[in-house]
Amino acid sequence: MRIVLVGPPGAGKGTQAAYLAENLSIPHISTGDLFRANISQGTDLGRQAKSYMDAGELVPDEVTIGMAKDRMERPDATGGFLLDGFPRNVSQAEALDAMLKSEGMTLDAVLDLEVPEDEVVKRIAGRRICRNDSSHVFHVTYSPPAQEGVCDVCGGDLYQRDDDSETTVRKRLEVYHTQTEPIIDYYRGQGLVVTISALGKVTEVTQRAMAALQ
């Protein structure tokens, strides 16, 4: 099964992608992982991406597309894949269609995780990270520490990352609405979009997604 996963920041795409890929026995292909792997391995595409990132510029679509193409051509992806973070805009979606068509393949579904904007802001802006260990994550509403501002695990200070502030989250949502959301209409025109609510427990959302994909 070949699936594209879309949704706003804070929709839980990474979490759901991991569960869905495991349930469907297909690789989870994340743009973030692709960038990190290519840069750490010093591939030609990784060097190109790093040069743009070091200059504070956006990585061009052709570099991202090249990384995705290389990953999708590996043996473990012959039976399908779940794309998370790619395509990010309509031009990338068109390039993905052309890439698949050249291999005689098509997408099976585009899973759209729907979350109200205020809930996205609440989820991200309420996050607090431990200064001693960034894997210790709390939430002021959903998983608060026993003592405000103190990590339950190691006693370290909890803080809000700059990119988790409400102002930054709303800017990220603007970018999503402008750049990424249009691909939902693009794929809806192909009859591929399946929209589900991403509210509730992680397991509930996974069950909802599996039922919708079947």
Molecular structure report:
The chain has helices at residues 13-24, 31-41, 44-54, 61-72, 90-102, 117-125, 166-180, 182-188, 202-213, and strands at 2-6, 28-30, 81-84, 109-114, 127-130, 137-139, 158-159, 193-197. The chain is an alpha/beta fold and 214 residues long. It has a domain at 2-115 and 180-213: P-loop containing nucleotide triphosphate hydrolases (Rossmann fold, 3-Layer(aba) Sandwich). Strands 2-3-1-4-8 form a five-stranded parallel beta sheet, with helices on both faces. A three-stranded antiparallel beta sheet has the order 6-5-7. Helix 2 (31-41) packs across helix 4 (61-72). The termini are close together. 26% of the residues are buried. The model has no long low-confidence stretch (mean pLDDT 94). Catalyzes the reversible transfer of the terminal phosphate group between ATP and AMP. Plays an important role in cellular energy homeostasis and in adenine nucleotide metabolism. Keywords: ATP-binding, Cytoplasm, Kinase, Nucleotide biosynthesis, Nucleotide-binding, Transferase.
